[in-house]
Amino acid sequence: MERIKALDGIRAVAIAMVVGYHADKEVVPAGLWGVVLFFVLSGYLITRLLCIERDRHGEVELKHFYLKRATRLYPALYVVCLILLGVGLIGWSNATPTLGLYGNYARIAGVDLGLLTHTWFLSVIAHFYLIWPLVIAAVRPRHRIRVIGLLAVVAIVWRVVAIGVLSPGWVYNATDTNAAALLAGCFLAVIPQREWRFAGWSIPLLLGLIFVPYFGEESPAFTWGHFIALALSVAAIQYALTRPSWLETRVMVWLGKVSYGLYLWHYVFLRSGLFSIWVALPLSVAAAAASWYLLEAPLQRWRKRFEREVLDSDTTEADAGMVSS
């Protein structure tokens, strides 16, 4: 699947929400719902990739999928952890849950992740990457809409139930409760695309939501803000797919490309106590750019070369087998 520039623009919107929240909760009290937009987008993209592969080749190549996700997720995360450990800003008690990809459940258990607190999100994503390819591989293409739609409904209902029976920490951090947003994106990926008339309002409404204290973490309505952010996120992605316009501008696309590094680094600079906000933000962007150009992009190029070499090798072996038979 070719890279869709407008979805990089959506990433830029999501990271702006999250960074705004961490920069000043008083000004952007509900910006944390940017993570919902990230979840929905992740569900959409991964499902599209997996379905395309299954339809073209009749199966999902799990080894290639896990290699691709591992080289995208882990190296930049490891670099952040190693640097913070090296300069003494965190200890192994902070880093181990993050590197072990159970940081979200560690937070629920009361573990202080320090400057890696924000990496709970990556644990949820990693769990999704581990499980979802197996689901797509098992479900027949003609049953996708029904199966994924049912799973999405179950996940949403479960989150509603969890709000009433589990702690707010579990509802916000756990993989099972965040499956609602991920599966909403998955469902969007398998239904026929069409233009939604109201979708153009989704991004302004989503950005407006982040300034409403009523849906911030200090409000009784906090847990319910997730569902508003979820609905607007689905509409925002559909809008990006059908009427991208400004989302494809160079600045938006570039911010989307470096958004992973920006997500990893912004919290470190903003919460370390070493810098003012006006210094921390430019440093975060600089670190994200360095992460992209020096680590993430080169690793992606290496992975693509590796996959081509493996594919060529498999093709040669198959041809040799046909000749010998």
Characterise this structure:
This protein has one domain. It is built from 14 helices and no strands. It has helices at 5-23, 34-57, 62-86, 92-99, 103-108, 120-138, 144-165, 168-173, 175-190, 202-209, 222-242, 250-257, 259-271, 277-324.
Number of domains: 1
Order of helices and strands: HHHHHHHHHHHHHH
Helical proportion, percent range? over 70%
> How far is the N terminus from the C terminus?
35 Å
Rg value: 20 Å
Report the major sheet: none
Integer average pLDDT: 92
Structural class: mainly alpha
Query: How many individual β-strands?
Result: 0
Total of DSSP H or I helical runs spanning 4+ residues = 14
Beta-strand content estimate: under 5%
Give the overall shape.
globular
> Uncertain segments of ≥5 residues (pLDDT<50)?
315-325
Key descriptive features of the protein:
0% strand; disordered C terminus; globular; 14 helices; single chain; mainly alpha; 325 residues
Helix-strand layout with pairing:
Elements: H1 5-23, H2 34-57, H3 62-86, H4 92-99, H5 103-108, H6 120-138, H7 144-165, H8 168-173, H9 175-190, H10 202-209, H11 222-242, H12 250-257, H13 259-271, H14 277-324
Task: Give a brief outline of the structure.
The protein is mostly helical.
